[in-house]
Amino acid sequence: MTSVDEPAQTNGRLRDAARTQAEILDVATQEFARAGYDGARVDEIAARTRTTKRMIYYYFGGKEQLFTAVLERAYGLIREAEQQLDVEHLDPVAAIRRLAELTFDHHEQHPDFIRLVSIENIHGAQHIAASAKLGRIGSPALEVIRRILAAGQESGLFTADVDAVDLHAMISSFCFFRVANRHTFGVLFGRDLVDPAQRAHYRAMLGDMVIAYLTAERAAD
Amino acid sequence: MTSVDEPAQTNGRLRDAARTQAEILDVATQEFARAGYDGARVDEIAARTRTTKRMIYYYFGGKEQLFTAVLERAYGLIREAEQQLDVEHLDPVAAIRRLAELTFDHHEQHPDFIRLVSIENIHGAQHIAASAKLGRIGSPALEVIRRILAAGQESGLFTADVDAVDLHAMISSFCFFRVANRHTFGVLFGRDLVDPAQRAHYRAMLGDMVIAYLTAERAAD
DNA sequence: CCGCTAATGTACGAACTAGTACGTTAGCTA
DNA sequence: TAGCTAACGTACTAGTTCGTACATTAGCGG
Q: Is residue B175 a part of any domain in this protein?
């Protein structure tokens, strides 16, 4: 998160709209991720801020709009991160594995984002659907997948004829589940999916799975 | 869900503890799945019941315990369903594919259960962790997977040396994601993962993926 | 350096919500 | 059929929570 780390002011000003908004968004992200939309408390967000509840309503309008703003920023940060990825110099197999690993790492490093997505799905994606910034935003990763897939399919390395969106879903599924459902999975099966000692194991498992799927010999169909 | 479908009474009695409890659980399941734990309203549950709020506290003690009871019953139903599965007569490849398909179907048919699991994870699995009935319950499917894997690995058909829990996670990931995240995924990528027209496509994709992973030629490692 | 507005703080209210005190009755049992 | 208890209903409360009316000031533009 692009946090406000300085203890007092960012640029010497006592009154700083941008800083206040950023601070509210930081704390709100934590609070919504911690407790869900309805579980989150506006008073609690305000209390953990340098400013007061008044400012939340001044800048964002209300709890609902604040949550939308939190989602918009969180998705924006993901987009930024994905735009960094540079795997086109690799051969298709290595490129896909690398992409899967980056997705894996990314999910692991942003559990709050995963929680926000879970919460938003509980509410039928109503906030991102209403957001002008987030409608059909897609993902930079998708374009990368599209190009790697095309190269792999053309060269005959990839036998599966998946499209980019479906492959993205496949990769995300595993990464998302591992983080989002770690609590129930841990209690029910006695295994911590995000145990650091098992990280490399699951990371390799994901890559193996995706590559195996893409390169498997298919019965002619 | 083992619902109470008759409009008035089940067995002629006006006062029927079992029926009242079952009805409360039915409605509570819907309400919690609809709105999340904090979003759910005890008054709303009561209103949609033949009985009153008083009885919820009489039988379950409180909102928290009611939610736990809802989870216990939901997991119990899953267990029952999984105990039906009979794939041991098939060869390992067919058996795993069948198991994956059953998991796929099951997730699709019980979106409320998926939502409850998402909600419980938002709350750190605190309810199932505290429940005597649900600690380390495991899953009947797990035993089946264990046996199929052993057979497949022994015969040399399966090259991957996954264990049953990890394979279960892999299969569940895809099934869970498809249902749980369909709303955000739909808005962001313009694709409905639970579109009935695409059902067979995704069902086959899951099976292909798992089989490809299990039977891929591995570099000696 | 003066005034105007964006930015901020305080105190409060209206509505909601989990939970309960108290009273009533169905229906089994002896 | 009498009576006892499990099952049920009504009405209420205490506490919480989103949101706002009103008052204040920092600091930029002229």
A: yes
